[in-house]
Amino acid sequence: MQKLSLSQSLQQKLSPQQIQFIKLLQIPTAELDTRIEEELEINPALEEGMDEFDNDQSEDDPFADEYGDDYKDRSDDVDLGSYLNDEEYGGYKMQGDGNYAEEEREMPLATASSLLDALMQQLGYLNLDEQQRLIGEQLIGSIESDGYIRRSMQAIVNDLAFSHNIFTDVEELEVVLQKIQSFDPPGIAARTLQECLVLQLQRKDTSDGNVRMAIRIINDFFEEFSKKHFDKIQKRLNISEDRLKKIIQLITKLNPKPGSVEGDVGGAQYLIPDFILTNNNGKLELTLNSRNAPELRISRSFAEMMDTYEKSDKNNKALKETVSFVKQKLDAAKWFIDAIKQRQATLLKTMNAIVKFQYDFFLTGDETKLRPMILKDIAQLIDMDVSTVSRVANSKSVQTEFGIYPLKYFFSEGISTDSGEDVSSREVKNILKEFIDNEPKSNPLSDDKLEKMLNERGYNIARRTVAKYREQLNIPVARLRKQL
Fold first, then answer.
1. pLDDT tens for residues 161-203?
2. 296 neighbors 307 (Cβ within 8 angstroms)
3. Residue 101 region by backbone torsions, left for phi larger than 0, else alpha for psi between -120 and 50, else beta
4. Domain segments of the chain: what residues?
5. Could you check whether the bond before residue 185 is cis, i.e. omega within 30 degrees of 0?
6. What angle do helix axes 193-202 and 241-252 make, rounded to 10 degrees?
7. pTM (predicted TM-score)
8. Fold adopted by 413-484
């Protein structure tokens, strides 16, 4: 037999206003304009510009107090109970209510000729029959963003048969592929790095003995070349060290990713800083990017509509529905403006704490002065939750006299020294990079040797940590750093 029982429990739930603030806080400056434009489009009660009531307030103005700097809720003064019942008004609901994970937005990019367009245009210049043209289009469509075709020729043959009812074989595909591989950029449509390098070398002056020797090295000694076993190559080819050095330099100047030459629209985007930090005679001054502080206001016409409805027939059903709509839009506009202001205050509060914590670095630009800092350190300084600091640090950047830095750059773990002090892991990475930059190129330093050198400097660090930092710096192992 089932039993009915009552129980009380406490649950934390985010209000619609909190959800809206969280969403606005975590988006970068570049996306803020788009988000504001969306809100302006869907809410007629929200307008751009300075608040009219700041400059036009009088005792006769019934809206001066309600919609001044604080954007107080007009419902405090208007008796909405005469129009609405509790069950008729559900409040302002936002898209994504209850799920404050930021939706992925596609950023509009400038129109530019893509790699695919360029290759298709070059294909049109060839004198091909209908079947070869379709094969060429299929091959070009199989080229990945870095310029390689990684699908097997047999798989493309099958695609043509099933999708386009074109029956061909690998031999015919190879004929068309060779034509495409003659397109610009050099090395395009290669199936391996080895083939890509050979295609580029064949475009050079093959009457040059070094070019011919470079082609031979890639064709016959590619494994030794990739592992930098130059002594073996020199011995097998019976050439001088100086000549081998010139040939290796010729090869290393080739482009391993030919697809990035054209149509790389993403590389043309500009980083928009969220903060601007200036040094005014030794005093650091922090300001928000002006795009983070838009001028928004409540529409005066909507406020006047509410005043008109206050004097109208409160038993009119149609009027009640209109009041509900106006009230929702006014609340939405007020909450959005409050969220923008709260976003500005939180951004500045967090960044000011970061500047205070890393003051020596921002003053000098010396990376060795960076202090170990984690999200919790800043959260304690500003008396906010770690998740709030994380949202501020994510996708935000600051412009300094030494360049633009993402905020994540200033957060790092600490490493103990012999003196018992904690230093930033970034400082250790800088010293590690310094060691590697000054190492003998013919005999690079191993991770074990780097560990000993760091320990001699007073940094208590293990070899596995050296390897981790080296990988984070995108520096290969000693064997692959070897040069002639």
1. 888 888 989 999 999 999 999 998 899 999 999 999 999 999 9
2. no
3. beta
4. 115-260, 413-484
5. yes
6. 100
7. 0.51
8. Arc Repressor Mutant, subunit A (1.10.10)
